[in-house]
Specification:
Blueprint: H1 6-14, H2 25-98, E1 101-107, E2 112-115, H3 117-123, H4 134-137, H5 146-159, E3 163-170, E4 176-187, E5 193-202, H6 204-225, E6 230-234, E7 239-242, H7 244-250, E8 258-260, H8 261-267, H9 270-284, E9 290-298, E10 304-316, E11 322-331, H10 333-355, E12 359-363, E13 369-372, H11 375-380, H12 402-413, E14 418-426, E15 433-444, E16 450-459, H13 461-492, H14 496-513, H15 519-550, E17 556-559, H16 560-570, H17 572-578, E18 581-584, E19 589-592, H18 594-610, E20 618-625, E21 629-635, H19 668-678, E22 683-688, E23 692-700
Parallel strand pairs: 18-20
Antiparallel strand pairs: 1-2, 1-5, 3-4, 4-5, 6-7, 6-11, 7-8, 9-10, 10-11, 12-13, 12-16, 14-15, 15-16, 17-19, 20-21, 21-23, 22-23
Length: about 700
């Protein structure tokens, strides 16, 4: 009797047969009957296993569909909140345009800048080009102001210093603007500068008014230095003597130095005649000893000149009436015109504030509110009059503690400018509240003494509510993603373990008892192993699809040729087996997730190899410039796709062929679509049945933000 394998000896012993003795024919018949019953029981177990697999697959599909619906709803809510936030940003940008006020920020660690639209206009740049590098930006500054601007930026980077500066910029067309820049610096724990931000304001009109005012003062100084003042002397007979400057001022003959008092009154503008006459009468009659007033007189050419009259009584009669007056007349026309321009400029400024959503406010040196434009009440519904005469911290703010108020008060006492100081003010009845943002700058008089603050306020309630809603939606999305990750974990571990058991033990049966099974039995067991393998692949593909957004990497500049090379290396065996030729155009460097882009190339080229015609596969990767994006096209000469299936093929589990013809799970193109959309692009297909297909997807040249975009 041949020596039996120990495992077989133990199995026979369980059936009551002594393998070391010669079993009888009846014993062998009994063994075979028990094996047959075991086989029948195995068939029943296989049927139950297949039913369990079908039910598990259906439950997973339904669960995934429900999760996708929840995610779609959350994404829609995030999109709506984002749209509202962008509308608020648009309103802010329009207000900045009206007020000629731009804002900017710079992050040194990432060398990234963010500008408002008004900044581009003020600097004469195109917002489509984005902010220029700092070294290029300085070239737009007037050459006489560059060193001062460099000094301000150097202090900010070296010492974290705040500051402000006035400088000129030159636009490409040659126009020059005066800008006032405020710079605020933020430092990290180690004292390093982590953020710079500030504002730019157009002060060209103010500078021009200052220049005109300075010019008028220069003229006055010239007159004073050259004794070009107009001397006035009125004698007892009412004859008025005026120095030669009077004739030069009015355009008359220099020899016309004498006139009469009545003639002077006649030359005075009718709006000021009564007041002028009253001033002289008060002095002549003794009610006043000096006079100082301004009025207009008509020149020879018909224009009006503003004259400042200053003088006093030098002689009186016995009754106290003036006998002689002496004084000087001064041409103040330039100053008056400058004051008019300043007044008009201020009126325009207040008018612009009235048109914008912001309001203007002023404080005195004790920080009491002295003025508030009416827009405040219109925008917030709060009573602006209730704040007049009060300090900012006299009225409660729901978001600020005593410590917060103390810091703000200390900043004011240091006479520092402040930006975007946010307060949540309750309504009069306490039933609601409004969010307010204030920015202000200190005011000083000509002697350099602090006299108060002035600034603007904005109602940011809608923006705050949008931020809160966006944060809540973001947290909800994070929770949903966490649940999706948990599902992926279950799919990758718990659901695959039974499949491994089924596949392993079925293959073990084939190896050990395969010669005892007939052809049908081995075929059925092959179906079990193949079904388990396909189920395992389906779970792994589903896991890969779910991880596109949850296990992705930051967007960094990558060479697409490297991602393509990685995909081709993974497909080398399939390329060699099919005799395929894969070519490509020179590929650009774009911000992307390198691993996911390699997966896109691998899925698209892998499909081209799988769905090939009777000819050797030819695959070409082409590149097209689409302005703000690059379009990548993977073209093949395969079997092609009918147009009615162009949308369906990008859906999960959608297949156009049975598994016998072309293996797969129907998730590959769905992964491609999800990866491309995560990168901010789109994917499409063009195909002719029997001639081949071209799958094209776009990738932005610049990503608005880096990070896990899933």
């Amino acid at each position: 009797m041949p020596r039996l394998h120990p495992l077989l000896v133990r199995q026979l012993a369980r059936l009551g047969v002594d393998a070391h003795a010669a079993p009888s024919q009846a014993q062998w018949h009994g063994v075979l009957e028990r094996v047959a019953r075991a086989y029948q029981e195995a068939e029943q177990d296989r049927y139950l296993l297949e039913r369990s697999q079908d039910l598990a697959s259906a439950e997973m599909t339904e669960l995934y569909r429900a999760l996708e619906e929840d995610k779609a709803q959350l994404e829609s809510r995030v999109e709506e909140r984002t749209r509202r936030l962008r509308e608020s940003e648009t309103h802010l940008s329009e207000a900045q345009r009206i007020a000629t006020l731009g804002s900017w920020s710079y992050v040194p660690q990432t060398n990234t800048q963010s500008w408002s639209e008004e900044c581009y206009r003020l600097l004469g740049l195109d917002s489509a080009d984005g902010p220029p590098p700092l070294h290029a930006l300085i070239e737009h500054v007037h050459e006489e102001d560059r060193d001062r601007v460099r000094g301000l930026m150097g202090d900010a980077f070296d010492r974290g210093a705040n500051g402000d500066i006035e400088f000129r910029v030159t636009h490409p067309g040659g126009n020059a603007l005066w800008l006032h820049a405020l710079l605020e610096t933020f430092t990290g724990k180690e004292g390093e500068v982590v953020l710079l931000r500030g504002t730019l304001r157009d002060i060209t009109r103010e500078k021009r008014a200052e220049d005109e005012r300075d010019f008028a003062i220069a003229r006055l100084n010239t007159a004073l230095n050259g004794s070009n003042l107009i001397l006035v002397d009125v004698d007892p007979a009412g004859v008025v003597f005026l120095s030669e400057g009077w004739s030069e001022l009015l355009g008359g003959d220099r020899r016309e130095t004498y006139t009469t008092f009545d003639a002077l009154i006649a030359m005075t503008h009718q709006d000021e005649r009564e007041r002028t006459l009253s001033e002289y009468v008060d002095v002549v009659t003794g009610r006043k000893s000096e006079y100082d007033f301004e009025h207009r007189v008509r020149a020879k050419d018909g224009s009006w000149k503003w004259i400042r009259n200053r003088g006093r009584v030098v002689e009186r009669d016995a009754h106290g009436r003036a006998r002689r007056l002496a004084g000087i007349n001064e041409d103040v026309t330039a100053r008056k015109e400058a004051e008019e321009r300043v007044w008009q400029s201020d009126a325009r400024f207040r008018s612009l504030l009235a048109l914008s959503s912001d309001w203007y406010w002023e404080q005195d040196a004790q920080f009491g509110l002295t003025f508030m434009s009416g827009r405040m009440g219109e925008r917030t519904g709060l009573d602006a009059a209730a704040y007049i005469g009060r300090k900012r911290w006299d009225t409660p703010a729901l978001n600020l503690s005593d410590e917060d108020w103390a810091k703000h008060r200390a900043q004011l006492e240091r006479h520092e400018p402040f930006r975007n100081f946010e307060m949540q003010r309750p309504s009069d009845d306490g039933s609601s509240s409004r969010w307010i943002s204030l920015s202000g700058e200190p005011l000083f008089d000509e002697a350099g003494a602090f006299v108060g603050y002035r600034g603007v306020g904005s109602d940011i309630t809608e923006r705050k509510h949008a931020e809160i809603a966006l944060r809540e939606a973001h947290e909800e999305l994070k929770r949903s993603n966490a649940e999706l990750e948990q599902f992926a974990y279950v799919a990758s571990h718990d659901l695959q373990e039974p499949l491994r058991m089924v596949s392993s033990y079925t293959q073990l049966l084939l190896r050990r008892f395969g010669e005892r099974f007939d052809g049908d039995s081995r075929e059925f067991m092959g179906y079990i192993v193949d079904g388990a393998a396909r189920m395992k692949q389906l779970i792994e593909d589903l896991l890969a699809y779910s991880r596109v957004g949850t296990k992705s990497r930051d967007f960094k500049p990558i060479e697409l040729e490297r991602a393509l090379s990685r995909a081709l290396a993974n497909l080398k065996a399939a390329i060699d087996e099919s005799g395929a030729a894969v070519t490509h155009d020179p590929l650009p460097t774009l911000p992307a997730d390198a691993a996911q882009l390699a997966q896109v190339f691998q899925n698209l080229i892998g499909n081209a190899l799988k769905f090939r015609s009777q000819f050797a596969p030819k695959v070409h990767v082409a590149v097209h410039d689409r302005g703000e994006a690059c379009e990548i096209a993977v073209r093949d000469n395969g079997i092609g796709i009918e147009p009615q299936y162009f949308e369906r093929i990008f859906m999960v589990f959608q297949r156009l062929h049975n598994k016998g013809e072309y293996p797969g799970t129907g998730i590959g193109l769905a992964i491609v679509k999800k990866v491309v959309e995560r990168h901010g692009g789109t994917v499409r297909v063009e195909s002719t049945l029997g001639e081949g297909s071209a799958f094209s997807f776009t990738l932005p040249k610049h990503q608005k933000e880096t990070g896990n975009g899933g």
